[in-house]
Amino acid sequence: MNRNGIAIGGNIVFDYVKIIDSYPKQGNLSTILSIQRSVGGALPNTLIDLAKMDGDIPLEGIGVAGCDEPGDFVIDLLKKHGINTDMIIRQDKLGTSFTDVMTVQSTGDRTFFHFRGANSLLDISHFDFNRIKADILHVGYALLLDKLDAYDPEYGTVLAHTFFLAQCSGMKTSLDVVSENSDRFSKIVPPSLKYTDYCTINEVEASLITGIPARDKDEKLILDNMKPICTRLKQMGIGHWAVVHAPEGAFALDDSNDFYIQPSLELPAGYIKGTVGAGDAFCAGVLYCIYKGWDIKKALQIGTAAAASCLSEPGSTDGMRDIDSMEKLFMTMPRRKL
Fold it and tell me: Mind telling me which SUPFAM superfamilies this protein's record contains (predicted)?
C-alpha cells in the first residue's frame, strides 16, 4: 500500500470548558463566569490542529463515540475540517466521553473532571491496517484507554501489540500519554516504547515513566535532568525522537542521540486565555514536521509556536492557525530565559 497522511487513534472527548473566578477548597464555592463547548482528547484536538495548520494533509481518525449529541458534535466538527471519520465507531453501550474543564480566569490553570465513556472500548480490533491509508499513526492517550492499556502476554500491553502491527504494515508510530497521579506509568507505558518511533510527552509524564525527577521540591524545572530523562526514554526503545515539553521549554534527543533545547516563547501579560489542548497542539506541530520530513530542531520550534497559539483562546483548538502563522509567531516572539 502506498501510504500517505496522519492517522490518530485514541480519546474522543466532548469538553465543557468552564471559566471560573478561582479554584475553591473542598466544600467551598467558586463562580462560573462562562461556559464554552469544545472538542477534547488527543484525536479531535490533534487532528483539528493539523487540519488548521495545513488543509492538504490526509487525516484519519480511529476511535469510539456514543450514539448521542456530544458524539454528533465532535464528528460533525471533524468532518467540517475535512477529516476522515469512517473508522470512528458509534455505539450505544456507553455515552461519548466528556470532561468538565475548570479554568481559572486569572491564571489559565485548569483542572479536569473526566468521564471515560466510549473511549474505554477502543481496542486493537478497531485498527484495521488494510483500511488505514496514513503512513504515521499517533495514539493518545496511553493510561486513559482501558482496552489498549490492558495486559498482553506477548507484547506487554494491547497498545504495544497495536504499534507492532502498525510498524509491520509500514507505518511510523507516535505516542502521547496522559498526566495522572498513579504508579501505572512504569507498568503500562514502557512496553509500547519498544514499538514507538516518536514519543512526545510532558515533563511530568516523562519523569513518572523514567523515575528521574523533572522538578525539585519547589516545583522548579531541573534542567540538568532533562537530557538524562530523554536518554532514558530512548534507552527504553524509542526508535527516533524522544521529545519532552514543559511550560519552560522543550527538550529532545534525535536519531543520533543529539540533544536539543528549545525555550518557550515569552508571552505578554493577558495573552493566555486557557491552557487546555496546549500539549496536543505541541504534538500536532511535531507530527506536522515528521510528516514534512523536517528535522527535530524545526519540530521543536513549530511545536512551541503551536502550543503558544493554542494558549491564546480558551478552547482546545480555537487558537490554532496555519503553518505560515506558526512560523511567523515563532520568529517574532521573544524566548523565555532558561
Answer: Ribokinase-like
Q: Roughly what angle, to the nearest 10 degrees, separates helices 296-310 and 278-292?
A: 150
Query: What's this model's pTM, rounded to 2 decimal places?
Result: 0.93
Q: How far apart are CA 201 and CA 19, in angstroms?
A: 26
Look at the block and give the residue holding cell 470532561.
99
Q: Strands 6-10 and 136-142: what pairing?
A: parallel
pLDDT tens digits along 102-128: 989 998 787 889 899 999 999 999 999
* Cα distance between residue 276 and residue 133, in whole Å: 30
Query: What are the tens digits of pLDDT across the range 300-318?
Result: 999 999 999 999 987 789 9
**107 vs 259: CA distance, rounded Å:** 32
**What's the rounded Cα separation, in Å, for the pair 171 and 157?**
19
Q: How many angstroms from the chain centroid is the CA of residue 202? A: 9
8 Å CB contact between 214 and 207: yes
6-22+33-332 fold: UDP-N-acetylmuramoyl-L-alanine:D-glutamate ligase (3.40.1190)
Kindly report whether the peptide bond that precedes residue 291 is cis, defined as omega within 30 degrees of 0.
Answer: no
Pairing mode, strands 151-152 and 156-157: antiparallel
Between CA 43 and CA 29 the distance in angstroms is 33
Helix (H, G, I), strand (E, B) or coil at 93: coil
With residue 53 as reference, give the H or E element that holds it.
Answer: helix 42-53
Gyration radius from the chain CA atoms: 19
Sheet holding 13-20, edge to edge: 32-40, 13-20, 97-104, 110-115
